[in-house]
Amino acid sequence: MHVGKGMRSAALVSRHGPTCRRVAQSLGAAGVSVRTSQFPSELPLDGIGDVIALLVDLDVSPGEEPAVLVSEARRGYPDVPLMATAGVDARTRLLDALCEADVNHVIPKRGALTLPRGGMPVLGSLEGPDEHDLFAAVRRLLDGPESPGVTPYLLSGAPVHEVSVRSSEDKDRALDNIISFGESMGLTGEKLRRVELAAEELLMNALYDAPRNADGRARNAELDRRQPIALGADETVHMRYGCDGQTLAVAVADPFGSLSKKAVTDRLRKVRDGIPKPNAGVAGAGLGLVMTYSVANQLIFAVSPGRLTEVTAVLHVGGSNRAAQERGTAVHFYVASTGERNGGW
Amino acid sequence: MSSSGLRSVGRAAIVSRHPSTLKHVAQSVAVANLSSRQAIGPSFLPRSAPGEFELVLLDLDIDPQTAPPDLCVQVGAACKDTPIVVLAGINARHRLVQALAHPDVVGIVPKIGAWSESATVEAKLEGPDEQALGLALRRRIERAVQPVGPAPYLLAGTQLEERLIGSSADKEETLAAILADAARFGLSDEKVRRIETAADELMLNAVYDAPRDERGNPLHANADRRTPVTLAAQAQVRARWGCDGSTFVISVADRFGALDRATVSTHVQRLLDARSPRLGRGTATGGAGLGLVLTYSAANQLSLQIARGRFCEATAALHVAGSNRAAVARGSALHIFDY
After folding, report:
1. Do B321 and A130 touch (CB under 8 A)?
2. Mean pLDDT, to the nearest integer, of A141-149?
3. pLDDT < 70 positions in chain B
């Protein structure tokens, strides 16, 4: 397929039919055409217009290290946002891609995590990445890393609620609000627990990990999480949440913009490498992020360094909780500039 | 700390006794910000005056042996003049359409998997799609006074296309544009065919069946669909569509609002005939509501927003995520917003 000059396009590396179809569908709906190659070495180097993303299906070579596949694909596309999807050994390989390679977006394929523990899916049993998730990710890539809250992840017109938080007391009240909201949505048991856990961890991060001194050093990160704190008047944290019946999303934005991808991936490695035993109330272990990753279906980080961090957790609440958890977790980073500082999480 | 309130805007009565269905419905009702009162059968509903409940959600599976209109009569006896939305998993396709014979029924909703002949009884009793039902209930409560278009069915920020149709030639061009978009999204042939059916029939209906003269008589309803027609400037049809990767939605609005619930009900009940509605078409003259039946069959949700004498907007939402087979197995819901 030839893509005209000036037309937005994406390059896809995949030889898995359902993945190619789903990616073309999601990106096409976002106004982006897709040029597909079967292997990284076959990616076209010119004539594909304005490339907005490079998407690599790690299943093209399940025996190859994700970092190797990604770097090979990267060669002709040095500055393009890189996405990875996988179905075979998806959780580990996607985390590898996120933590060890230059990948800012990882999306598991549907069906990747539904086999019995220890089972390995064959490509034929896999579907591609979730169309809604991929569509929302690409739309946001096009719109920039602003602070849209939860709306990109919900049906248009779904009511969105907002709570302002400046202290640990506010945080408890905000948490009560979202739990009541979840209950009013008919959520119970594990579904409600997932919502509570995600919201609490996002708020804790914004209150304790994100705040910085004038010299950019973490202000509250070493504090015991049980110790009450209060933020300044111009440091208000905003929590927004909503539900359209199938998806519940909660976003927490702070005005510090101190989160970095490295800080997140340092924590997410614990998912892959095993989680150390937490000490009650002790900060900085990053277990909150690991737990949020394990309960959310999408985890989205948008950072404007020094200005704003917004972390959004998207949870599927339609159907059974088991089916929702089996969808796995996509992770997305949107960073406004390259300046990275350690902080957050 | 500031907080937005969550006060409910009204009450819904839910008649069901299947736990899974109740869970799904409770989630949907909450999306519309309604509180609910549950009863295990129509006879357990509290006697209520019109308006006391915004609507009743009736699960036909509470008594698969009783004719759906009879169950609706029982609901009507307790909740007089209250809109009823019926749900079904057992023999759903047939029983939902049968329920439309009752004048208070304004919505029919299959439970997930109910359309699949191979689905187990347990699967058929799972419950309706929470998102789709929640949206329909939200629309019913919001009572929009203008055509809402495809946006509510799509993720926020989804780009919409729009065309004004002033003639049958414009209709053909618009259909071509919709199909070009579907092709650009890489949809399979079966999915494109469903979209084509829905879009074509909705636009045919708006161009040929909807237009009325000053006295309210149909202008083109008896014309052969191959006969070119041109609409007056104030009678132009507005078509909008969009796709968020998972759902393809087409809305077509005319400026006559000539359709009503009873007519829709009569047309859709043609599905109860053993013959395919296509077999009865016979000639190229449409009318007779066949387009409505075909669109209902092709779509996963068909919503008709009618403001009598002002406009009628038909919106068809089609699932295009995953396989076409899975999308078709989700069944077809119908909602009539007639006020």
Report:
1. yes
2. 79
3. 1-7, 117-124, 274-288
Write the residue in B3, B33, B151 that is nearest to A163 by C-beta: B3
Q: What angle do CA A125, A128, A131 make, to 5 degrees?
A: 140
**Residues B135 and B171 grouped into a single domain:** no
Shortest CA gap A161–chain B (Å): 6
Q: Mark which of B81, B109, B142 sits at the end of a domain.
A: B142
CATH number of the domain bearing residue B110: 3.40.50.2300
For residue B2, being part of any structural domain is answered with no
Q: Which residues 39-68 of A have a C-beta within 8 angstroms of B? A: none
| Interchain CB contact of B187 with A (< 8 Å) | yes
Nearest residue to A203 via CA among A225, A180, A187, A186: A225
Residue of A107 and A227 predicted with greater confidence: A107
All CATH 3.40.50.2300 domain ranges in chain A, comma separated? 8-143
Give A250's DSSP letter.
E
Residue A153 touches chain B, beta carbons under 8 Å: yes
Confidence check: pLDDT of A149 > 80 = yes
Residue B184 belongs to a domain:
yes
Closest-CA distance, A275 to chain B, in angstroms, reads 34
- B230's tokens: 């041109």
Average pLDDT value over all residues in chain A? 86
Residues B74 and B206 in one domain: no
- Cα–Cα distance between B108 and B103 in angstroms, integer? 13
| Alpha carbons within 13 A on the beta-carbon side of A238 | 16
Q: How far apart are CA A126 and CA A112, in angstroms?
A: 6
If one counts the domains in chain B, the total is 2
Whether B232 and B64 have beta carbons less than 8 Å apart is answered as no
Report yes or no on B96 lying in a domain: yes
Cβ separation of B245 and A318 shorter than 8 Å? Answer: no
The pLDDT, as a whole number, for residue A293 is 93
One domain for residues B233 and B106: no
Compute how many other C-beta atoms are within 10 angstroms of the C-beta atom of residue A266: 15
Q: What is the pTM of this model?
A: 0.89
CATH of domain A8-143: 3.40.50.2300
What single-letter amino acid sits at B315? T
The CATH architecture that domain A151-335 belongs to is 2-Layer Sandwich (3.30)
Instruction: Name chain B contacts of A21, Cβ cutoff 8 Å.
Output: 186, 188
